[in-house]
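User:
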Amino acid sequence: MARRGKAAELAKDAKAHFGVAAPNSPTVVQASDATLIWSGPDQFFVLSTGGKHTTQMLAPAFSGSASLSDQSHARVLINISGDKVRTMLAKLSSIDLHPTAFPVGAAAATSMDHTSVTLWRGADRADGLAEFNVLVFATFAESLWHTMLDSAAEYGVAIAHSEELAQRL
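Assistant: Predicted structure:
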């Protein structure tokens, strides 16, 4: 999160460190080894695998422009796809997920079934199916997960392990 009056400096530091401009609107930006997810004005999440961007590693690059907070164990990432994914998500959220309203790279800080989440649309899978990601506080993840399973039950559900997702991020 940018420190007061340091939004432009944060953007400059993000560009220098990640090689891409940080998201300044509800979008997701893909860097070579991290995903930057807009989470509010002048703030974003850094999602990476293998501890490449720990708070300690980022601190020198952002010491003057941002306040950092490690969220590694505070949130759970749920990745969803399928031919009925929009219909299932529509049961839980008021966001318009039509491809013209919520294209690849769109993000939203919203709620699903009364639970605060960060939702974004990932790149379509190789089979053409849309892919969505939900970042939710760990304490609410199990409840939301079961609600999602209930909402998707009529369409069928297949669950993959997180290691498979980590290889794609």
